[in-house]
Design brief:
By secondary structure, this protein is an alpha+beta fold. The protein has one domain: Electron Transport, Fmn-binding Protein, Chain A (Pnp Oxidase, Chain A). It contains four helices and seven strands. The chain has a seven-stranded antiparallel β-sheet, sandwiched between helices. The longest helix has 14 residues. The protein is globular and about 40 Å long.
Length: about 140
């Protein structure tokens, strides 16, 4: 098993520790928003280490929509590149843990439908898209059969 390297961002590392340390009973929302998050566990493409990222919980049936917004920053988040390199992930949603496979949404109609769901779950996504010149990637995590 590879080593887990916590995020260099203190609040991210703290949230992951609280969420996982409580068995999915605490740390379930994004800071003070009250909006639910999931924990995405993946492998770093450069280090091979285990990485864990809290992302907004945007469900689509049994799938999860992962929004690579990074607050509207000019570049994609590191986790996006990690998932493109290695699409196998584990998603913790409260006390449930799922083995999943990620794919990037490229179909325009699917993207439009899923973007609407993402913005409904976390309205700031729309402002993030308006703030950046890049198209914010959407990825779908689907259960491994």
């Amino acid at each position: 098993m590879s080593e887990y390297i916590p995020s260099p961002s203190k609040w991210v590392a703290d949230q992951v520790a609280l969420y996982e340390g409580s068995g999915g009973k605490e740390g379930l929302t994004l800071r003070d928003t009250g909006l639910p998050v999931i924990i995405v566990t993946n492998r770093g493409r450069k280090t091979g280490a285990i990485r864990k990222t809290p992302l907004m919980r945007v469900a689509d049936g049994n799938n999860y929509i992962l929004v690579a917004s990074q607050g509207g920053a000019p570049k994609h988040p590191v986790w996006y590149h990690n998932l493109k390199a290695e699409p196998r992930v584990e998603i913790r949603d409260k006390t449930d843990v799922y083995e999943m496979r990620v794919r990037e949404v490229v179909d325009a109609a699917e993207r439009e439908r899923l973007w609407a769901k993402a913005v409904a779950a976390f309205p700031p996504y729309q402002a993030y898209q308006e703030k950046t010149e890049r198209v914010i990637p959407l990825l779908v995590a689907e259960p491994v059969a």
